[in-house]
Amino acid sequence: MARLISGGQTGVDRAALDVALGLGIPSGGWCPKGRLAEDGPIAARYPLVEIDSPDYPARTRRNVEDADATLVLSRGALSGGTALTLRIAQEFGRPSFVVDLRDPADLVAAR
Fold first, then answer.
1. Which residue among 1, 16, 90, 105 has the highest number of C-beta atoms inside a 10 angstrom radius?
2. CATH T-level assignment (fold) for domain 4-110
3. Dist CA 54 CA 90 (whole Å)
4. Any idea where the domains of the chain sit in the sequence?
């Protein structure tokens, strides 16, 4: 992996950035204007660039557009921004891999 791209939202997005920073993996991505996230402004330690809009879907689109592939981790059916990420990846023709953490078969396949 050359670079991890994330929007820095709470949950898996932020955890991925934390792991990348901890392991020295190049990382970055786009975030909404004002560094908006569900839990307040995204900390400056995350190497994210603000887009001109506070719109989460616009941020997601930019990140997927810049990515070579997309990994989606879920617990059951996709919804909200997670489902949007997969739709945008398909729209751009980007490879995507969905792992349902509740499905033992997905966990085996991910290994």
1. 16
2. Rossmann fold (3.40.50)
3. 24
4. 4-110
